[in-house]
Design a protein that fits this description.
Layout: H1 10-22, H2 26-38, H3 45-57, H4 61-71, H5 76-86, H6 89-101, H7 108-121, H8 124-136, H9 143-155, H10 159-168, H11 178-190, H12 194-206, H13 211-218, H14 222-234, H15 241-253, H16 257-269, H17 276-288, H18 292-304, H19 311-323, H20 327-339, H21 345-354
Helix pairs in contact: 1-2, 1-3, 2-3, 3-4, 3-5, 4-5, 5-6, 5-7, 6-7, 7-8, 7-9, 9-10, 9-11, 10-11, 11-13, 12-13, 13-14, 13-15, 15-16, 15-17, 16-17, 17-18, 17-19, 18-19, 19-20
Length: about 350
C-alpha cells in the first residue's frame, strides 16, 4: 500500500502496534511506526504512547525515553508513563519540570506517582509540598492519592496525622475505601492501639463499611467478624467475594476448616462466585488439617467451575502432600509443575527447602 503512495490509516496501525507490543515484539511495532512516518502520515500522541508503553513493558527504557522526550510531542499520559518507569525521584521531577515548561499540565495520576515516589525517597514533609502544589493548581486528589499519602504518614509513625486525613476525606469530597481503612487499621494494630482500632471498626460499622471485617480478622477476632457479617446481611448489605474470602481464610487459619467450608458452600446460594483466593483459603485449611485428599477434591471442583488455579494453589497442595509424609510424591509433583511452567521455581524455593 505504501509503495503505491497511499498513506496508511493511523487507527488500524495503532492497533497493530499495540498488538505487537502486547506480545513484546517491539521491533515489529517500531517498524510499523517507521513505515507510518515515512509514508507521510502523522502519528498522533496516542500512537506514540502505545509504543512508549510497549518499550517500558519490554524493559527498553532508553527507547521509551528517546521516543517520549525527543521524537514526539508528549501529552500528560506520556509523562505519566515516563514518571512510572524512571523509578528515581530526581528523574521523575525533571520530567515534571519539562512537562510544565511545555505547558502540559500534570493530572491527578502524575501527582499521585510523584507523591508516592517522594514519600519513599525523601519523606512525607516533601511529599506534602507536592500535595499543596497539586491542590493550588486545582487538581483534586482522588482516593488513591489519599491512600498513598496516608500510607507514607503511617510508615513514619504519625498515626494521629493519618487519622486526621482519614476523617477529613469526606468533607473534601472523597470517600475513603477499603484500602484507606486497612492502612490505618494495620498501623493501629501494629502499634498496639487496640482501643482506637476497636473504635474505628465501630465507626466503620455505623457507615456500613466492609473493611471492618478484614480489620477484625487481622486482630484475630473471627467470631466478632462473623457476627458482623450477620449484621451486615440483616441491614440488607451484600458483602462481596473479597469479604467472604477474608472470612474463609480467617476460619481456615484458626483451623476451623469445617466452618470455613460451610461458609464457602453458602456462597452459591448468595450468588457470590468464589475466586482463587477463596478456594486457596479452603485448601490451606484442609491441608493444615491433614486432609489433603479433600483439598485435591476442591482443586478439581475449582477447575470444573472455571476458576483457574494459581501458583499459590499448587504450592499449598505440594506442602500438604509433603506434610502428610508423601515426600517423594511432593517432589515429583513439584518437578512436573516446574518443568511445565505452571509454577516458577523461585516461588517454591521455600517449599523445596522444607522438603
Amino acid at each position: 500500500m505504501v509503495s503505491r503512495g497511499d498513506i496508511p490509516d493511523i487507527i488500524p496501525c495503532t492497533t497493530l502496534i499495540r498488538g505487537f507490543c502486547r506480545v513484546k515484539k517491539t521491533k515489529k511495532a517500531t517498524r510499523v511506526m517507521e513505515i507510518l512516518e515515512q509514508s507521510g502520515a502523522i502519528p498522533d500522541v496516542i500512537t506514540y504512547n502505545v509504543l512508549i508503553s510497549g518499550y517500558c513493558k519490554s524493559g527498553e527504557i532508553d527507547n521509551a525515553l528517546r521516543l517520549g522526550l525527543d521524537e514526539c510531542s508528549p501529552d500528560v499520559v506520556t509523562y505519566n508513563v515516563l514518571c512510572v518507569i524512571f523509578g528515581k525521584l530526581k528523574q521523575a521531577m525533571e520530567a515534571l519540570e519539562q512537562q510544565l515548561q511545555r505547558e502540559c499540565y500534570p493530572d491527578v495520576f502524575t501527582y499521585t506517582i510523584l507523591i508516592e515516589a517522594t514519600c519513599r525517597a525523601s519523606g512525607v514533609e516533601k511529599a506534602m509540598k507536592l500535595w499543596d502544589e497539586m491542590r493550588s493548581r486545582g487538581c483534586k486528589p482522588d482516593v488513591v492519592t489519599y491512600n498513598v499519602l496516608i500510607n507514607g504518614i503511617c510508615k513514619e509513625g504519625r498515626l494521629n496525622e493519618a487519622f486526621k486525613f482519614l476523617n477529613d476525606m469526606p468533607s473534601s469530597g472523597c470517600q475513603p475505601n477499603v484500602i484507606t481503612h486497612n492502612i490505618v487499621l494495620r498501623r493501629m494494630c501494629s502499634t498496639g492501639r487496640w482501643m482506637e482500632a476497636e473504635q474505628l471498626l465501630t465507626d466503620m460499622q455505623l457507615k456500613g463499611c466492609a473493611p471492618m471485617i478484614d480489620g477484625l480478622l487481622k486482630m484475630g477476632k473471627t467470631e466478632r467478624a462473623l457476627s458482623l457479617l450477620d449484621e451486615m446481611r440483616g441491614k440488607g448489605l451484600k458483602p462481596d467475594v473479597f469479604t467472604y474470602s477474608s472470612l474463609v481464610d480467617g476460619l481456615s487459619r484458626e483451623r476451623k476448616v469445617d466452618e470455613a467450608i460451610k461458609l464457602f458452600l453458602e456462597l452459591e446460594g448468595l450468588a457470590v462466585k468464589p475466586n482463587a483466593i477463596t478456594y486457596n483459603a479452603v485448601m490451606l485449611g484442609l491441608c493444615k488439617a491433614r486432609k489433603t485428599d479433600r483439598a485435591i477434591d476442591f482443586l478439581a471442583n475449582m477447575v470444573l467451575k472455571g476458576c483457574k488455579p494459581t501458583e499459590v494453589t499448587y504450592t499449598i497442595l505440594i506442602e500438604g502432600i509433603y506434610h502428610q509424609g508423601y515426600v517423594d510424591e511432593a517432589l515429583e509433583l513439584l518437578d512436573k509443575l516446574c518443568s511445565r511452567g505452571v509454577v516458577k521455581k523461585k516461588l517454591v524455593e521455600p517449599v523445596v527447602i522444607k522438603i
